[in-house]
Amino acid sequence: MGLTADQLRASLDALATREPAFAAGLARIGYPEPRIRDRGYGTLLRTIVGQQVSVHAANAVWRRLGEALGDIENPATLAAASDETLRAAGLSRQKSGYARSLAALVASGALDLADLPEDDEQAIAELVKVKGIGRWSAEIYLLFAEGRPDIWPAGDLAVQIEIGRILGHDERPSEQRVRELAEAWRPHRGAAAIFAWHHYKTDVI
Hints:
Elements (H helix, E strand, L loop, with lengths): L4 H14 L1 H10 L11 H9 L5 H15 L5 H6 L2 H7 L3 H16 L11 H8 L7 H10 L12 H11 L7 H8 L6 H12 L5
Helix pairs in contact: 1-2, 3-7, 4-6, 8-9, 10-12
């Protein structure tokens, strides 16, 4: 599970002592709600389903996929499904390929979501073996489903925009600049990202 409310508060309080702009932001808009997802295959499959479509459309596809597969949390059911079944549920050919990649890796044990490496970069490397799961999706999974406290999705546009705003920059800082700025925030960068989204008022997954 993701970072709890208590963990978020403790991390943001620690950040506020290091960076006055965070203290000012907390005073202005308060603490964010936790963003928590279940650990495991289902959450990653849902991530694939939701790529580049609205939340409403993703929910509809997820519902149809569940009706078609029965046990949607079991990768074997998707692996055994025909292309026609997946297409009828609303998955494009590309997304069907991504979903099959995930199901095959999990079902074979090549990707063990119950025992990812403790090192964040190594865990990201494992997750991006799945077709359709890039660095951003891997980072979001590790932050929201595993509650890893120092995940820093610096490539996220909303994070870049809001970190720039929070710190009073005239322009949106680049991904590289955001990475540099956040070095001083270790090991609380996950809370910093969640606060940035809270500031931006955006839903991620």
